[in-house]
Amino acid sequence: MAYDVFGESDTSIRIDNGEITITTESNCPKAQRYVLRPPREDEDCFGFVNTLGGFDTLMMQGSTILKPSGEIETFTSREVERELSSGYTSHWEASTGYIDTERAAAQYQDFLKSRDRWVFRAGRWLRIVVDEYKLEHTARELNAYTFKYHLAERNERRFYERMDLPEVELPIIL
């Protein structure tokens, strides 16, 4: 399932105390969104800027596997080791599911060619970066493509930054 919204930029006009401000943002998802059908369980919606400059969406029906990575930075003081930071980053491996038409295959290939991609999660478009992909296509046969991606904004908002907060107190269990 896909659609095109053609245009090169998103223009907004704001009027403050009689002063008009026109803002133009290029290469961003459009504010409008066509609902083709209600989402089904285990589907992921991806958006991208296609080769014609339009904004397309694709519904991935294949499996998505979480494969996080990262390095832990630690220090040792008086023979006690503590963690300074966790470089935890979520990486996902997504599958398109079976691709049964040449038209659908062309749309998935257009997605993989794009440099501007998003995933739609919790009502928000989140920019993604594709790390690698596997694309093997045989004409007039069922195909499936896989790709690995991560969020462009690495801060996944899992932990509070602890600048002035006291250390966590563990509960006493009797």
List keywords for this structure.
7% helix, eight-stranded antiparallel sheet, disordered N terminus, extended, two-stranded antiparallel sheet, single chain
- Biggest sheet: strands side by side, in what order? 1-5-4-10-11-12-9-6
Mean pLDDT: 77
Shape: extended
Radius of gyration: 22 Å
Query: What is the number of helices?
Result: 1
Measured distance between first and last alpha carbons: 57 Å
The tally of strands reads 12
Strand content: 35-45%
Sketch the major β-sheet.
8 strands, antiparallel
Q: H/E order of the elements?
A: EEEEEEEEEHEEE
Q: Which regions contain 5 or more consecutive residues with pLDDT less than 50?
A: 1-8, 30-36
The residue fraction in helices comes out at under 10%
Set out the fold topology.
Blueprint: E1 4-5, E2 9-16, E3 19-26, E4 44-49, E5 55-60, E6 64-66, E7 72-77, E8 80-86, E9 91-95, H1 102-113, E10 117-121, E11 124-134, E12 146-151
Antiparallel strand pairs: 1-5, 2-3, 4-5, 4-10, 6-9, 7-8, 9-12, 10-11, 11-12
What would you note in describing this structure?
- This protein has an 8-stranded antiparallel β-sheet, covered by helices on one side. It has a two-stranded antiparallel sheet with strand order 2-3. Strands 7-8 form a two-stranded antiparallel ribbon.
- It is mainly beta and 174 residues long.
- It has one helix spanning 102-113, and strands at residues 4-5, 9-16, 19-26, 44-49, 55-60, 64-66, 72-77, 80-86, 91-95, 117-121, 124-134, 146-151.
- The termini are far apart.
